[in-house]
């Protein structure tokens, strides 16, 4: 499968809903992207690779708001989607009750 076929260009900011002047792969306008990157979240319960995966999930536009605190997140391989919130996720780790990087990405987006 070629990457161009799977990449989606967002025309509205996923955070504030404003129309983007330049369509964005991650789904955020410049101001909202800066706020997401600057968001302060407690990372003490997460491993470094989870923090990196959460940041990549956001940068790739692979976590999309569904409702006020519920998001749809794409798995690492792109084969599955999960419903995630800051305190729960439908991925394997989330169903076991452990914290996953999907939850961290949701926390980062909500903190912004």
Write the layout of secondary structure elements.
Blueprint: H1 3-6, E1 10-12, E2 19-24, H2 30-38, H3 48-59, E3 63-65, E4 71-74, E5 81-85, E6 88-89, H4 92-95, H5 101-111
Antiparallel strand pairs: 1-2, 3-4, 4-5, 5-6
Helix pairs in contact: 3-5
Question: How many strand segments?
Answer: 6
- The backbone outline, from C-alpha atoms, is globular
Would you tell me the overall average pLDDT?
84
Number of helices: 5
Structural class: alpha+beta
Distance N to C terminus = 34 Å
Describe the strand arrangement of the main beta sheet, using strand numbers. Answer: 3-4-5-6
H/E series: HEEHHEEEEHH
Low-confidence stretches: 1-6
The description of the largest β-sheet is:
4 strands, antiparallel
Estimated share of beta-strand residues: 15-25%
Rg from Cα: 14 Å
Helical percentage: 25-40%
Tally of individual domains: 1
Entry summary:
The chain is an alpha+beta fold and 112 residues long. The chain has helices at residues 3-6, 30-38, 48-59, 92-95, 101-111; strands at 10-12, 19-24, 63-65, 71-74, 81-85, 88-89. It comes from Streptomyces cupreus.
Q: How would you characterize the overall build of this protein?
A:
- Helix content is 36%, strand content 21%.
- The protein has 112 residues and is an alpha+beta fold.
- It has a 4-stranded antiparallel β-sheet with strand order 3-4-5-6. It has a two-stranded antiparallel ribbon with strand order 1-2.
- β4 and β5 (81-85) form a beta hairpin.
- The model is unreliable at 1-6 (pLDDT under 50).
- This is SWIM-type domain-containing protein.
């Amino acid at each position: 499968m070629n990457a161009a076929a799977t990449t989606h260009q967002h025309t509205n900011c996923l955070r504030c809903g404003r129309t983007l002047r330049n369509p964005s792969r991650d789904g955020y306008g410049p101001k909202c992207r800066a706020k997401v990157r600057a968001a302060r979240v407690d990372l003490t319960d997460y491993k470094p690779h989870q923090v990196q995966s959460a940041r990549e999930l956001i940068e790739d536009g692979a976590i999309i708001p569904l409702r006020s605190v519920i998001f749809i997140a794409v798995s690492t391989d792109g084969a599955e989607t999960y419903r995630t919130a800051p305190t729960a996720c439908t991925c394997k780790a989330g169903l076991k009750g452990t914290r996953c990087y999907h939850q961290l990405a949701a926390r980062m987006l909500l903190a912004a």
